[in-house]
Amino acid sequence: MTEPKTAHCLTIIAACTLAIGANAADDDLFGRDALFGDDLPKLSSPSREAGSGIKGFIQFEAARTTATPEHWSKLRTRAELGSAGKLGEGTKWKMGARFDYDAAYSINDYYPADVEKNQRYNLELRENYLDVSAGNWDFRFGKQNVVWGEMVGLFFADVVSARDLREFVLPEFDQMRIPQWAARAEYFANDFHAELLWIPVASYDNIGKPGSEFYPMPAAANVRYLAETRPERDTDNMNYGLRLSTLKYGWDVSGFYYHSTDISPTFYRQFDGPTVVYQAHHDRIHQYGGTLSKDFGDVVLKAEGVYTTGRSFSVQDLADSDGVVRQNTFDWAAGLDFTLPAESRFNVQLFQRRYSNYNATQIPHKEENGYSLLLNTKFINNWEAQAIFISSLNRSDWLLRPRLAWNFERNWRLLIGADIFKGPPTGLFGRYDQQDRVYSEIRYSF
Description:
By secondary structure, the chain is mainly β. Helices cover 9% and strands 54% of the residues.
């Protein structure tokens, strides 16, 4: 992607966004999470902070993929509405829904029919729950997000909520999360917090359809994908967990156990003559993890770790009957967040996945290491610039995400940015080397 082409596409998208956005509207339902992670600064919305009633946002998003053939990969209008209230002392409720229409799947024939059907329209419930308080106990029943980790750019200890991965990890995390139907009980006593979680009917990651822009497996002439298998809705596939946390001497520490059917699929392999056939399945897994954070003034330390058993991973051994092996993994991430002069901040993270019973025919190394860098600064007339770089330390495999944000009117926000991938076809980011894109978004919140 050359600089002239990128600049040209940014100009087209910005013009298109402003033209359509003037007739639509845009911003976020419960506060604006920064683009690259939930722990970044949030913009408040005065109109949402006072009064009740219907709140939400309407936005228009445009993205143009710059690889050959250059094409519009997103022309989406999204509306998200919600309301909250009380039913009496100690009882509250919340309701929300989202509707999407993406015109990119109506104006060209670039994508397969299954992809167009999957991504042209979307109607879904968001968080819809009832809260009940009784002394030191809080109970939440219904469709809800459960956030157990908050690192920048990637998911580590945030293991409960499913995610819409049809745009990889590029959207804001609060927009990606798919709420779970759950019952949650929380106990508070001084600096101690306990959380019990039961999910009778689970939600799973939405990975889209083969041939979509960010489908996690490649398209090839001799490869076929069967429909993803989702677990039966029975007692064997219920999820449950326990999380304990405490705050002592400024250290916020938590530990958790979570037993679930994996929200992420594993692609099992078989052969049909010369054709390789894959099908996505969801393994039953156990996860043990924890988080910690400490505020040192201008520097904030955060760390997360998760040990997972029962998950399977793909291997290159053609003699293996299903193309996967079961592995135990330990994922951890640690980061420092620096507050800088002139309303700026810098974040640096290191992360690793380690396979404890490594199979030599796996594509990843026994230890997969990486890092991320983020720089954010605000300047005149409500402009904000931000860039994040996430890279492997094992190979040249990286993602660069620069963007500009402009809050040009009360409750209005304009974004212009780019997503640039580089690496080998088997890399976390390199598999999307042909999905470089420039994008823009205009949002009105109310």
